[in-house]
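Hi V.,

Quick status before I head out on leave. The structure for the redesign project is tokenized and pasted below; the design run finished overnight.
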């Protein structure tokens, strides 16, 4: 790997680890006993950290997928990552069983947006490579279910900050792998080439 091509991998790895650390800090013991306003600030910080992590992960994953140096972060990526975080939060409260649907939609949207395409361009993988796209959906749903099990196990056996770190490290690894796979799937169909 040349120096320019290894930087996206380093950014991806750093994003996963730093994101896990920041989310683990939000699970530090004693946060539940702090004043409500301070707890709200900590929760908002956690959401912002998650948003930044999603932007950086999609950005670096797009560069890794294209085997290219990092480009600039496009404006649409900031907006769609915010939509992803907000939609995930709302759906997690209202109907948690629909979370895999949100994940699949964002796996279609984010790689294309990170590469400078429209948000809907990623859905063309279902028309152009139907069976690969269906397989990717099945694998993504299995990965999400396994991630829920990992989160439960991390909560049972590794409580507090350590459990949160392990859980968010796992989420970062799985999310990055899925974004790269969906990005490669879209690249095979010519959907992620920048306009």
């Amino acid at each position: 790997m040349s120096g320019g091509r290894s930087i996206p991998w380093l950014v991806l790895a750093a994003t996963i680890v730093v994101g896990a650390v920041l989310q683990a800090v939000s699970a530090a013991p004693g946060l539940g006993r702090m004043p409500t306003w301070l707890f709200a600030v900590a929760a908002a910080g956690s959401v912002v950290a998650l948003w930044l992590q999603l932007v950086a992960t999609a950005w670096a994953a797009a560069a890794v997928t294209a085997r290219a140096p990092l480009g600039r972060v496009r404006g649409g990526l900031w907006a769609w990552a915010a939509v992803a975080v907000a939609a995930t939060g709302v759906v997690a409260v209202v109907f948690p069983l629909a979370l895999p649907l949100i994940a699949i939609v964002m796996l279609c949207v984010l790689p294309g947006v990170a590469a400078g395409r429209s948000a809907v361009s990623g859905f063309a993988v279902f028309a152009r490579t139907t069976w690969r796209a269906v397989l990717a959906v099945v694998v993504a749903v299995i990965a999400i279910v396994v991630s829920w099990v990992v989160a439960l196990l991390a909560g049972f056996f590794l409580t507090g900050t350590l459990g949160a770190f392990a859980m968010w490290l796992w989420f970062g690894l799985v999310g990055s792998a899925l974004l790269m796979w969906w990005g490669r799937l879209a690249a095979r169909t010519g959907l992620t080439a920048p306009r």
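Above is the designed sequence. DSSP finds seven helices and no strands in the chain.

G. will cover questions while I'm gone.

Best,
W.
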